Amino acid sequence: MADKPKYMAVQGAALIVAVALTVIGVLGFIPGITSGIDRLTWAGQQSGALLFGMFLVSVLLNVVHIVVGVAGFAGARSYAAARAYLLGGGLIYLGLWLYGLLVERGSNAHVIPLNGADNWLHAGIGAVMVLLAVTLAGQHDPTKRRSRVRRAASH
What Pfam families is this protein classified in (predicted)? Predict the structure, then answer.
């Protein structure tokens, strides 16, 4: 009988997403990679820092990316947690996308600096995370598969 894989595909996907989001968050603090780093603000629309010269960032947004990324390292430990991480994180990023689209720029409610590139990035990240959570769910949790096999064998 073949050995069961140590990690399920959903766990690997959660780990890849976790690394990517953590790296994105950290890069938002590095001069050269982030232009206008001297104009990086804690929050609000006044931040003038651009990650890769394209994505408007602030300390708050960088921290959100890092926190969601680090949560993925914990989530990747089990099948169920990895699925929950991808689904929950995907919904957070889709929420950021909607926030960027619906909240009027310049209003006091706009505490996270977002531009069109940010909105599309958040939509893409959110959609990919939700898609991974849903499609990789077809690879059933091995801990539950074993219990079904044991029940069938005992009858």
Answer: DUF4383
Q: How confident is the model at residue 59 (pLDDT cuts 50, 70, 90)?
A: very high
Return the number of other C-beta atoms located less than 10 Å from residue 44's C-beta: 14
How does residue 154 score in pLDDT terms, banded at 50, 70 and 90?
low
d(CA 134, CA 124): 15
124 pLDDT higher than 80: yes
Residues 89 and 68: their CA atoms lie apart, in Å, by 7
- Quote the percentage of the chain above a pLDDT of 70: 85
Other beta carbons within 10 Å of 45: 17
Residue 57 backbone phi and psi in degrees, to 5: -130, 160
CB neighbours (10 Å) of residue 71?
20
Task: State the pLDDT at residue 75.
Answer: 96
Amino acid (1-letter code) at residue 43:
A
Residue among 1, 70, 61 nearest 29 (CA):
61
Single out the residue of 75, 81, 79, 85 nearest to residue 146, CA to CA. 79
Prediction pTM value: 0.84
Closest among 60, 65, 85 to 75, alpha carbons compared? 85
